[in-house]
Design goal:
The complex is a heterodimer of chains A (about 350) and B (about 90). By secondary structure, chain A is of the alpha+beta class. Chain A is built from 12 helices and 13 strands. By secondary structure, chain B is α/β, with parallel strands linked by helices. Classes of the chains: A alpha+beta (about 350), B alpha/beta (about 90). Strand 1 of chain A pairs antiparallel with strand 1 of chain B, so a sheet runs across the interface.
């Protein structure tokens, strides 16, 4: 006997066609401004079935306002984002992580600082979903990268009320607020994948989420000394500390193949990079003067030192990017001492 | 075509506004500093105005440690005992 499908509780809206659905959703402020895929019951059920989730399952609760986020609503927003059904477990893992108190979902979503959730995906799910970790790793690379990141933004808009000028008070924001989903290139790197370093068992998939500002691209293809490359990264972090925010916390560091090969040839793994950056990414209060912030210097001890990282483990090192080009990316935190990266396994 | 709504179907419980005070004369007012840099001098001015121009009986100053998270429950409970609270955000 065929089991009775569990009821979907979302309000039903009758529309003439897909175009009418999109126009209605745009008018209601239910999108990020881009067209959406109409969330029909069939599509939403397919997503829930692929994830093995009951519609009423609570994925997480936004702690400040006590807002429960159900699987059904995450599925609706994932369909709208263009996710295929099999993408939903990754979206769910990301939302779970964001509801962890350490992430500070309300504060990071509402802040004038304008951050976006950076999603870093590890494990077998990347290949199964066709996720992309090569060229354009931080931009449009695959349907899965693009739509998984977008689904998280639609959840923030539609389930947390993060509309610009309303709950979302971002002064500027950045393009990652459309989608900010990165897959690690585990196959072309001898380094331990990020999720493994953060305690996820081998062979399991996971998402690490960090409230992040926009990537800062650096370039150094004039050395084969790993310390020189690491110093380039540390210098960019110092610039962020002085130009944006001095407070310590998680930074993400995306290292493509060309600079990665310099490190590997020298026997440097992620640990060596983290330890170098931990030691070098430091500024003095007096350094604020070179960034036009002299007014801040004398409010404290000008010689006081600030470190970008509380410990080397704060630096999230990710192997990703195209095979050529001496580039890397430093991705700063929104507010390092208030919101921390969280990792959750993908339930496959 | 039938599509499903992406937003919560039941609006979240709305916070109820307290009844407005007819006057601040003789009242106890708390000022909550969220810890950002410009809040303290702003609240200094507010406190002076309240004392000199509105006849308040008491002005209490409180500060929360984390400007990016709600005030802790014990502090909120304490503030609820005042006749009015002014919460200031400096940026």
């Amino acid at each position: 006997m065929t089991p009775t499908p569990q009821p979907l509780r979302s309000a039903r809206i009758e529309v003439a066609d897909a175009g009418a659905a999109d126009e209605l959703f745009q008018a209601n402020g239910w999108t990020d401004g881009l067209p959406v895929v109409p969330p029909t019951e069939e599509r939403v059920r397919a997503a829930l079935a692929a994830a093995g989730l009951a519609p009423e399952a609570v994925i997480g609760v936004e702690p400040v306002r006590g807002l429960a986020i159900t699987a059904e609503k995450v599925a609706v927003n994932s369909v709208m984002a263009g996710c295929l059904p099999e993408y939903l477990p990754v979206v769910v893992a990301a939302v779970e992580a964001m509801c962890d108190e350490a992430y500070l979902l309300h504060g990071s979503s509402a802040s004038t600082g304008g951050s976006a959730p950076l999603l870093i995906v590890n494990g077998p799910v990347r290949a199964r979903l066709g996720m992309h970790a090569g060229h354009n790793a931080l931009a449009n690379g695959s349907r899965a990268n693009a739509t998984i990141g977008r689904a998280v933004r639609l959840v923030q808009i539609n389930l947390l009320g993060c509309l610009p000028g309303e709950m979302d008070k971002s002064t500027l924001g950045h393009p990652g607020k459309y989608s900010f989903c990165l897959a690690e290139d585990e196959e072309d790197s001898p380094w331990t994948p990020l999720a493994r370093e953060r305690g996820v068992p081998p062979g399991r998939s996971a998402v690490t989420v960090m409230a992040a500002e926009s990537p800062r691209q650096v370039m150094n293809e004039w050395t084969d000394d790993p310390a020189h490359l690491a110093e380039t990264f540390a210098a960019e972090i110092r610039a962020n500390m002085l130009g944006y925010s001095i407070w310590p916390g998680n930074y993400a560091l995306v290292i493509p193949k060309q600079p990665r090969e310099v490190f590997v040839a020298a026997g440097w793994g992620k640990r060596e990079i983290r330890e170098y950056v931990f030691r070098s990414a430091r500024v003095r209060r007096a350094d604020w003067r070179i960034h036009g912030k002299g007014a801040l210097v004398d409010r404290g001890d000008p010689e006081q030192e600030y470190a970008a990282l509380r410990s080397p483990d704060d630096l999230l090192v990710v192997a990703a990017g195209g095979p050529a080009g001496g580039f890397a990316a430093v991705i700063p935190p929104w507010l390092g001492n208030r919101s921390y990266a969280v990792t959750r396994e993908v339930k496959e | 075509m039938i599509v499903l709504s992406p937003v919560p179907d039941a609006p979240p419980d709305a916070a109820r506004m307290a009844a407005p005070l007819e006057s601040l004369e003789g009242r106890r007012v708390a000022l909550l500093d969220n810890g950002k840099f410009n809040v303290a001098p702003f609240l200094d001015c507010v406190e002076e105005l309240l004392r000199s121009g509105y006849g308040v009986r008491e002005v209490a100053r409180r500060r929360k440690a984390n400007q990016n998270a709600p005030a802790p429950a014990p502090l909120v409970a304490e503030l609820a005992g005042y006749d009015a609270v002014i919460s200031a955000v400096g940026d």
